[in-house]
Amino acid sequence: MVNKVILVGFVGNDVEVSYTPGGQAVVKLRLATSRGWTDRDSGQRKTETEWHDVEVWGKRAEACGEHLAKGSRVYVEGRIKTDFWKDKQSGDNRSRVKIVADQVTFLGRGARGESAEPGGANEEEAAPAPLADVAA
C-alpha cells in the first residue's frame, strides 16, 4: 500500500519552530496549492486554491524555520495522516487531515523572485532552482 503526497505551493503563514517537551522541533505550515483551467462556456480563466496543513519535524523543521516565510514557494513530499480528538467543550468527535513531510525543498519567493501570493503565477511555469533540499 502507498500513502504518498507531493505538493508544490506557497506558504500561507509565518513559520515558527516549536519544540515538544522531549526537545523535538516541529513546524506547522499552511500550504496553498492552485489549479487553473479555462471555463468552456465563458472562455474565462478560473483558479481554485486548496489549503493543506503540513507538519515538518526534526532538522527539516529547524531548516524551515530558518529559510521559509509567508509567500515562500516550497515542494513537499510526505504522507497523509488524520488526527482524531474529542472537543473539550462540546464533547463532539473531531478530526483533521494533515500532511507529515518527509522531504521539503525550498523553491524561493515566487516565480520571478518577488514575494508571491497563492493564485499568482502558474505553478507549472518558471520553476526556479531549489535553494535547499532537506530530506530524512
Structure write-up:
The chain is mostly beta strands. The chain has one domain: OB fold (Dihydrolipoamide Acetyltransferase, E2P). It contains 1 helix and 7 strands. The chain has a 5-stranded mixed β-barrel with strand order 1-3-4-6-5. A hairpin with a 5-residue loop joins strand 2 and strand 3. The longest helix has 10 residues, at 58-67. The chain starts with a strand and ends with a strand. Residues 111-132 have low confidence and may be disordered.
Please specify the SSE layout and strand pairing.
Elements: E1 5-11, E2 17-19, E3 25-38, E4 45-57, H1 58-67, E5 73-86, E6 93-108, E7 132-135
Parallel strand pairs: 4-6
Antiparallel strand pairs: 1-3, 1-5, 2-3, 3-4, 5-6, 6-7
Kindly state the mean pLDDT as a whole number?
A: 84
| Whole-number count of domains | 1
Residue stretches low in confidence (pLDDT < 50, at least 5 long) are 111-132
Shape, per Cα inertia axes: globular
As laid out across the biggest beta sheet, the strand order is: 1-3-4-6-5
SSE order: EEEEHEEE
- CATH architecture, by name, is Beta Barrel
Structural class: mainly beta
CATH homology superfamily = Nucleic acid-binding proteins
Total helical segments: 1
Biggest sheet features: 5 strands, mixed, barrel
How much strand? over 45%
CATH topology label: OB fold (Dihydrolipoamide Acetyltransferase, E2P)
Kindly state the percentage of residues in helix: under 10%
